[in-house]
Design brief:
Helix content is about 40%, strand content about 10%. It is of the alpha+beta class. It folds into two domains: about 100 residues, Phosphorylase Kinase, domain 1; about 220 residues, Alpha-Beta Complex (Aminoglycoside 3'-phosphotransferase, Chain: A, domain 2). InterPro entries: ACAD10-like, ACAD10_11_N, Aminoglycoside_PTrfase, Kinase-like_dom_sf.
Length: about 350
């Protein structure tokens, strides 16, 4: 058994797939995707087709993190809805097979944009892709929780209170140094969490363009990926996550739109994207949006602090990139404080 995050025991995976994945046959070849920092992801090729395997990292992990069983459950539940997801084949919760839990799903052919400026596309297509991103977000938040069996997918009650408490604990558990801005942001969020307004939907938890696959021939979304942080909760957190990413610098590292001439590129302003979402969801507007934005900066800071800690501990999917990402935690904290000042 090989429990290294960077590799797989091909023989163990093959034997398990023959027993659990209908139609699987042939010898496996494996290639690890370099994208993604949380759950190591692999492309599996055999004579019966191409598959994707996502595994929980081996080693000591934070409680409730890397829940591949939840990723599998939610995508399986969404198969018959208007939310585009990959087909789920099988889940393995037996750590003895490869050293940690994993699942196997369909490998979908599609375009992935890791840069929201989408170099190489014309302005009309860029605008259509972002509008599709908006449509799919509204579709996620319109999923019938009862009909899909997801009513118990997350606790009821105040989502933000729950999330602030959870991510504060996660951050403290992976803290490697004192970051004053992060401490200040946590204090502010703790004091300014809104009351429960009764809005409860499916939320993705990490909704951004690089967690989506789009058609090779048009702007349609063919799959939403990376459901690890999904739960039932408050939909504005997903919307604010999109706006949060866009406030980052452009390019491979920031993957944002800060300073970009959006109109020239055919991209909407923050306000236009929010307005389009509100129209789709039949909402009059979103007061105190700065809170939701501050919350998203905090949560992302806590997430990448965890990535940094795993890199230092030797459990990261991509250790070098993990350490580089970890250096941005103070910047996310400062951005969260700026958003808080607008509330």
């Amino acid at each position: 058994m090989n429990n290294n995050a960077q590799s797989l025991d091909i023989n163990s995976v093959s034997a398990w797939m023959r027993a659990h994945v209908p139609g699987f046959s042939g010898d496996l070849t494996v290639r690890k995707f370099q994208t993604g920092q949380s759950n190591p992801t692999f492309r599996l090729q055999s004579s019966s087709g191409t598959y994707v395997l996502r595994r929980k990292p081996p080693g000591k992990l934070l409680k409730s993190a890397h829940a591949v069983d939840r990723e599998f459950r939610v995508q399986q539940a969404l198969a018959a809805t208007g939310v585009p997801v990959a087909k789920m084949y099988a889940l393995c919760e037996d750590d003895d097979v490869i050293g940690s839990a994993f699942y196997v799903m369909e490998c979908i052919d599609g375009r992935n944009f890791d840069d929201p400026t989408m170099p190489g596309l014309d302005a009309t297509t860029r605008g259509a892709v972002i509008d599709e991103m908006n449509r799919v977000l509204a579709a996620i938040h319109s999923v019938d929780l009862q009909a899909t069996g997801l009513a118990d997918y997350g606790p009821e009650g105040n989502y933000y209170r729950r999330q602030i408490d959870r991510w504060t604990k996660q951050y403290r558990a992976s803290e490697t140094e004192t970051i004053a801005a992060m401490d200040e942001l946590i204090t502010w969020l703790d004091a300014n969490a809104p009351g429960d307004d009764g809005l409860r939907t499916l939320v993705h938890g990490d909704y951004r363009i690089d967690n989506m696959l789009f058609s090779r021939t048009g702007p349609g979304c063919v799959a939403v990926l990376d459901w690890e942080l999904s739960t039932t909760g408050h939909p504005f957190a997903d919307l604010a996550a999109v706006i949060m990413q866009w406030q980052n610098p452009p390019g491979a590292e920031g993957r944002g739109l800060a300073g970009v001439d959006r109109k020239a590129l055919g991209l909407p302003s923050d306000e236009e994207f929010i307005a389009a979402y509100c129209e789709r969801m039949n909402l009059p507007g979103i007061p105190r949006f700065g809170f939701y934005l501050a919350f998203c900066f905090f949560r992302m800071g806590a997430i990448i602090q965890g990535v940094k800690k795993r890199a230092l501990d030797g459990n990261a999917s991509n250790p070098e990139r993990g350490l580089k990402m970890g250096a941005y935690v103070p910047q996310f904290a400062q951005a969260g404080l700026r958003a808080a000042s607008d509330v």
